[in-house]
Amino acid sequence: MARPAREIALERALRYLERCGVPPGPDVRAELEDLVAELSADGDDPTPLDRVMDRLWSRLEACRVEVPPTAPPIHRTSMGQG
Amino acid sequence: MRWRFRAILRRALVAVLVIVQTGIATYYMLAILPYHGSTAVEKALAGLFALLFGWITAAFWTAILGFVVRRGRGGDRLSLVRRHPAEELATVPVGRTAVIMPIYHEPVDRALAGLEAVYRSLAGTGELDAFDFFILSDSRHPLVWLSEQQAWHTLCERLGAAGRLYYRRRVANLHYKSGNIGDFLRRWGRDYEYMVVLDADSLMAGATIVEMVRLMALEPQVGILQTNPAIVNARSAFARAQQFANRVYGPLFASGLAAMMLGEAAYWGHNAAIRIRPFMRLCGLPQLSGFGLFSGPILSHDFVEAAYMSRGGHEVWLEPELGGSFEESPPSLIDELTRDRRWAKGNLQHLWLLVTGRRFRFAHRMTFLNGILAYGSSLLWLAFLVLAAIEVARFTLWPINYFPSPHQLFPLWPEWHPEWAIRLAGSTVIVLVLPKLLAMADLVLRRRQARYGGSRALLGGIGLEFLISVLLAPIRMLAHSRYVVESLLGVSLSWAGQNRSVETSWPAAIRRHAPGTVVAALWGGFALWLKPLYFLWSLPVVAPLVLAAPISVLLSRVDWGDAFAGRGLLVTPSDREVPEVVEAFRRALGSPLTAGGRRAFERAVVDPVANSVHVAAGRARRAQRGRLRRLAERCFEHGPEALSRDELDRLAQDAETMSWLHRQAWRSPPASYWGRRVDRDPVDRSPRSDPP
User: Fold this and answer.
1) What is the rounded distance in angstroms from the CA atom of residue B103 to the CA atom of residue B107?
2) CB under 8 Å to B466, separation ≥6 — which residues?
3) Which residues in A lie closer than 8 A to residue B167 (C-beta atoms)?
4) SS (H, E, C) B127-153
5) Distances B332 to B494, B499, B558 between C-alpha atoms, Å
């Protein structure tokens, strides 16, 4: 039997946060449940997955990963031959 | 400059000894030949013999010199390391140094585990602030470079090395490794005083690196300081034999070479410290302006860079007494031969520089010649064997010619003295074996034999290693001869990364060695038909070639290597007392950094952290936007398998497309391709060990 769309959206959002390093504690879960309920109620789309993920990306700071610099500032110069 | 005069004296002494010994042996050779060098074939045979005997005799006297130098108290008193006591060195500030690791399709976990070990070791010295680390990738395959990027990021997290450990991938990998390093220098060379070059299999103790940098600070005329890396981590029987030879005989040869070259030594391309400013001024490599092999970029750059550095007035030192420098051996014969194919081509290019290069120091010209002969001597040996076969055939099948020379008054009675031939062969064996026994004597006199399992195990190891090298010599000879001919004929070859762990399979060995086996079987049959005695003389060459495939397979086996070690054979000190940096490397290897294989792309799409890394490192390609979007849609619908390597590469390089794919993947339904990947258990990318 197919899982309800709301459940799929909730699981996906939790999994995403987990991969961002946010542990899926009760507070996080509750916040996401509210979010899914809100987006499921006011949309025409029977699967709120798209909208849940979009909202997650726009709202949650935790998903913004700080990437270390791949290189220091370039100070270009040339090489000589002999 | 006292060393320069001593170097000339030492080189002259070795040259005289080589020439005298070669002269005597060649005289014997002429006496052995039936017509005593009167025919063209015999003249050519004698000439080739002189070259080949001179070649092995040079190595013999180098080892003798090494033994003598090592017997002196504290080693060579002219060496760089003996000039400054430890107390003086400890007070010298450590200059800004870049530790660079150029890589090209290397096993990512292995290479970065090495870098992690070096990083941790340097952190242990308390001098980490003077060092930055660069992974300089030339990798072309998207699955490889995506893995590298992910591994770099994880390593940064694991070591807390953000802003100190960098990853740069060249989009256009011109001029191979030297181009890669040149690109680094042109961008960041001005920011550093020194660079330490590591290969993907290099390991260096932090204390050694710090000592080298301090030595260079005290000796401003030194441009390159080269260590003599010890082979470690050998598992297969083949690698164990190389490791044993490297650890037992290596110090003798390296000490002899260093004593002869002193401040005009060679640079081997890795495990060395380089003063950046003169290197940038002097060592930009030109394109070769000749024809065929002798045109285009210089492939084996290290010898040339040392020659340029020396020509520009800077010294290049090889210091075998500097410990804490390690590398790995190829695990199998096939891997060694694959590497040799590249090296042969690179070394042969030096012929052009040897002939046309100006103002090179004599020592560096000799280094070029040495490198050329490392492979060229195989072709000379093969030519010698072919001529010897012609000589035997002529002597056996044709009527005897009593007047081989024109204008000859008296007949020449051809003679064959097998006992002289045996004597000459015996003296050749002595030239090959004596350095090995001297190396053992050196270890015993230093009371180091226990580290090799004791005197009996050491002697047994030398015997086994000698047997293995005798079996491998004809196989290497034939392969190297082929590489030399291919190089001279301009047969192209791809510059590939190296296998560092896999055993050789039977089909791979048979495919690789079949041509040599067929040639050797025909040769053996011909020799038997011609003359049974000649067949016996040919056996040491023919038999290993006929058995090349089994030799190759069995020596690549780890269980054979373990079995030898279990019986105390081919044991080296690092088997018993693992150096700290090697231990750190093994620990790091136990916590892999990558997902590996195709999962690197999936991870780059799915994992939020990995995706952020790739998007940050990616580029914006507005010109190809439409095409990239079509590729991304195909990838989204059918997965990365639906794309070719080039298409995947283009996709992965584009920041916007990777970001789009990431979002699409997380929005996709659970039953779709990406939905299944997203819902799979996350890859554990948490740092598994503490930062140093």
Assistant:
1) 9
2) B433, B436
3) 70-71
4) CHHHEEEEEEECCCCHHHHHHHHHHHH
5) 20, 9, 10
Query: Per residue in A2-52, pLDDT tens?
Result: 567 788 888 898 899 888 888 878 888 888 888 888 877 665 565 678 888
Task: Give how far Cα B691 sits from Cα of B119, B124, B128, Å.
Answer: 10, 11, 13
Residues of A in contact with B153 (CB under 8 A): 67-68
Q: What would the two tokens of residue B447 be?
A: 């009371």
Q: Decide: helix, strand or coil at residue B635.
A: helix
Interchain CB distance below 8 Å, B187 and A79? no
Torsions phi, psi of B233, nearest 5?
65, 20
B182: nearest CB among A72, A79, A82:
A79
Q: Give A82's contacts in chain B (Cβ within 8 Å).
A: 282, 308, 311-312
Residues of chain B with Cβ-Cβ distance to A16 below 8 Å are: 608, 666
What stretch of H or E contains B606?
helix B599-606
Task: Find, among B323, B324, B332, the residue nearest to B240 by Cα.
Answer: B332
ipTM of the complex: 0.90
Nearest CB among B161, B188, B312 relative to A74 is that of B188
CA B174 to CA A36: how far, in whole Å? 52
Q: Are B175 and B551 in contact (CB under 8 A)?
A: no
Number of Cα atoms under 13 Å in the Cβ half of residue B481: 16
Task: Please name the amino acid found at residue B96.
Answer: R
Pairing assessment for the beta strands B194-197 and B315-319 based on DSSP bridges:
unpaired
Provide the pLDDT for residue A45.
60
- Smallest CA–CA distance from B149 into chain A, residue: A70
Question: What residues in A contact B187, CB-CB < 8 Å?
Answer: 71, 74-76
Indicate left, alpha or beta for B91 from its phi (over 0: left) and psi (-120 to 50: alpha): alpha
User: d(Cα B156, Cα B616) in Å, to the nearest integer?
Assistant: 15
Neighbours of B577 (CB within 10 A): 10
Of A49, A64, A79, the CB nearest to B186: A79
Angle among Cα B596, B109, B691 to the nearest 5 degrees reads: 120
- Please give the interface size between A and B, counted as residue pairs whose CB atoms are below 8 Å apart: 103
* The overall pTM is greater than 0.80: yes
Task: Give dist(CA B313, CA B561) in Å, integer.
Answer: 46
Dist CA B472 CA B597 (whole Å):
34
Whether the CB-CB separation of B28 and B384 falls below 8 Å is answered with no
**Ranges in chain B, pLDDT < 70:** 1, 402, 409, 411-414, 416, 492-501, 595-598, 681-692
Q: Do A76 and B187 touch (CB under 8 A)?
A: yes
CA-to-CA separations, B604 to B53, B457, B633, in angstroms, rounded: 57, 51, 16
